[in-house]
Amino acid sequence: MKAQEFFEKQFSEGFFYSGRHKKNLKELFALIRVPEAPVILDIGFGEPSELIFLNETFAGSTVVGLDIYEKKMKGITHGLREFNRIRVFRGDINALEFEEEYFNAIFSFNSFYFSRSAESVLAAILGSLKRKGVFALELDFYSGHKSRNQAVYDKYNIEYNTCQADHLLENMKNLRFIDTGHYISSQGNLFIYGYKK
Predict the structure, then answer these.
(1) CB 129 within 8 A of CB 41
(2) How do residues 36-56 score in pLDDT, each as one tens digit?
(3) What is the pTM of this model?
(4) Which residue among 37, 119, 138, 181 is buried most deeply as judged by most CB within 10 Å?
(5) 54 near 124, Cβ under 8 Å?
(6) pLDDT one-digit tens code per residue, 54-84
(7) Is residue 90 part of a domain?
(8) What CA–CA distance (Å, rounded) separates 187 from 5?
(9) Which residue from 96, 69, 83 is spatially nearest to 6, judged by alpha carbons?
(10) What are the beta bridge partners of residue 106?
(11) Model confidence over 126-183: pLDDT tens digits?
């Protein structure tokens, strides 16, 4: 089963977004530097409440959500119509096409394992970041750590890559991300981050 088909069927409020996820994001945002009134890209946002949380967390922000939904995108767009600083688009992590140096922050929460080539996706992300912009990703499963989502993907034969922190950090450094780092959240998720020079 393709990831898009799975998520079109399984999407529901709370499928990914829960108090646990919100706690993880609060920990991350206390650690990283995001400028005032940022333009943010959330790759694989999963559900609208994540975009709303980002918009509320970063005052004056403009949030762009990108996900593979096709059938549900119209409903998601309609549900967000009262939030004039949130936009959603259909897209794929493997085909990021945004203006050069457009975003102050790019996030990928539990979606980076759908990248077919970490190097090319990271290069596209770096190109879309403004100078001193931050990229951060969250993985709820990674080399040596399993999660409920991984078991679900295995059950439905959804293709994914098990990410390794060292490999991703090495790729980021090779692309000239600076101040890179990683940590395991209090909930057990792996976070990796870095900034554009």
Answers:
(1) no
(2) 999 999 999 888 888 999 999
(3) 0.88
(4) 138
(5) no
(6) 999 999 999 999 998 777 788 888 888 888 8
(7) yes
(8) 29
(9) 69
(10) 41, 135
(11) 999 999 999 999 988 777 777 777 887 888 887 878 778 889 999 999 999 999 999 9
**Residue that has been written with the tokens 């203006």 in this structure:** 99
Contact 127, 155 (CB under 8 A): no
State how many domains the chain has: 1
Q: Which residues pair with 39 in a beta bridge?
A: 62
**What's the CATH number where 74 sits?**
3.40.50.150
Alpha carbon 101 to its chain's center: 18
Compute how many other C-beta atoms are within 10 angstroms of the C-beta atom of residue 172.
Answer: 25
- Report d(CA 64, CA 105) in Å as an integer: 10
Range of the structural domain that residue 80 is part of: 3-7+21-30+37-196
Q: Which two tokens stand for residue 94?
A: 């493997």
Residue 54, domain member (yes or no): yes
Whether the Cβ atoms of residue 68 and residue 10 lie closer than 8 Å to each other: no
DSSP 8-state secondary structure symbol assigned to residue 69: -
Question: Residue 120 falls within a domain, yes or no?
Answer: yes
CB 63 within 8 A of CB 40: yes
Residue reference for tokens 């119209």: 74
> Left if phi > 0, otherwise alpha if psi is -120 to 50, otherwise beta: which for 174?
alpha
Q: Which position has the token pair 């409020």?
A: 13
